[in-house]
Amino acid sequence: MGRASAVPSHQSFAALGAMALALAASAPAWPDSRLAAGPNAPGARAGLEFSIQVPAVTRVLSTGHSAMVAVSAADVARGYVDVDRARIEVLCNLRGVRRLVASVTAVFAAKVQITGLPEEIVASPEASTQLPARAGGVVDRRFDVRYRIHLAPGAAPGVYPWPLRLALDAI
């Protein structure tokens, strides 16, 4: 058996050179862009197409209050519980009119009144308000609000889950 040589032969160099020469001869002549100038100089053009997709975002956060509401005997006698220093944060990039929808979700609450928005909402069991958009159709607002939770007849003192669900609706 013969050994393979690690050193290329003159025949392989000759074949490689012939292939390089044939490839160079078949390639189109491109002028050197540094040498070509003037109005009749060949030029190159390229087109670029791209698209941007912005994901739809709708977010409503209600902060500044507990997940639970403590109702005292004095609250029951008064008929409501006030929750001050709360905040509603809204972010939406959908086109069209946006509505903030408030829905009462707990049986101990007959209705929930929200002040501090562009207009007052009284959810009994549901209510909504339109939110003005800023430039580009984006709503990115923070509202300092106050909730007044009107107790349902027969409500007793105790600790209850937060009675309101907020949602954003683009119409």
What would you say this structure looks like, in words?
The protein contains 2 helices and 10 strands; from the N terminus they run αββαββββββββ. It has helices at residues 10-26, 73-78, and strands at residues 58-63, 68-71, 80-92, 98-104, 109-115, 121-123, 126-131, 139-151, 158-161, 164-170. The chain is rod-shaped and about 95 Å long. Residues 1-13 have low confidence and may be disordered. The strands form 3 sheets. A 5-stranded antiparallel β-sheet has the order 1-3-8-5-6. With 171 residues, it is mainly beta.
The gyration radius over C-alpha positions equals 36 Å
DSSP strand count: 10
Helix content: 10-25%
Mean pLDDT: 81
Key structural traits:
single chain, 171 residues, mainly beta, 5-stranded antiparallel β-sheet, 3-stranded antiparallel β-sheet, 2 helices, 13% helix, 41% strand, disordered N terminus
